[in-house]
Amino acid sequence: MFNSISNVSEYGIENSMMVILTRNNYLLYGLKALINSMTPKLLNETSRFYDVMHVKTTEDLSAIQLKKGQGNILITDFDPRLCAISKGKSFESIFEAFDGIMVIKNTRNPEENSSVCLSLQASISQIRRRILNTVKNAILVKEPVSQSEQLFTLDEALLLNFIIKGFQPETIASILKLDVKQVYARRSRLYRKAGVKSLQELYNQISCM
Questions:
Q1: Where are the beta strands (DSSP E) in the chain?
Q2: Helix 154-164 crosses helix 80-87 at what angle (to 10 degrees)?
Q3: What pTM was computed for the model?
Q4: 14-21 and 48-55 as β-strands: parallel, antiparallel, unpaired?
Q5: How do residues 135-185 score in pLDDT, each as one tens digit?
Q6: Would you tell me the crossing angle of helices 180-194 and 154-164 to the nearest 10 degrees?
Q7: Which residues, in sequence order, are CB contacts of 167 under 8 Å at separation 6+?
Q8: Residue closest to 51 by CA, chosen among 68, 69, 71
């Protein structure tokens, strides 16, 4: 087992970081065990060893000394762009050190065509396969995170911004020139997309900042 960056270098294996952003300890321990069990396969298919780091907030990400282009992966159980919306940060600033991202949602059927989402209720083999594919895309395809599939469109981000700032549906409808029923319908779709069921759950996700 390679257990240090120096040992890894001796074998010509590159060392990268897999950062888990969550407050769910059960998810954390499960992912750490799964990633450790994948070490031989990751080494065989990517010639790369992954250390695992845990952070609880998006603010903690800024303290990590990582550089884009090293194959670093972020795994999280919420969309950090929610925090970016409420903090006024740019999308790139949230992911500036990462080449790949995987968002694990507590929903039975996340977006089927999403390249970054995976259900928390997925099987171990599905999660294992998604992690491996995410790593391969980051290392071999080198697809920048900022150009990967967006979880929220610009219109959805705008609506989320109003919701997070406490605007009432009637006010939002007036600003966006929509019917109030349309605002409620779009808000419900956004809740499902964000993996929450209510405004309170959305605020709870934002508390991860």
A1: 14-21, 48-55, 73-76, 100-105, 117-119
A2: 60
A3: 0.68
A4: parallel
A5: 888 776 655 554 444 566 767 777 887 887 788 999 999 988 889 999 999
A6: 100
A7: 175
A8: 71
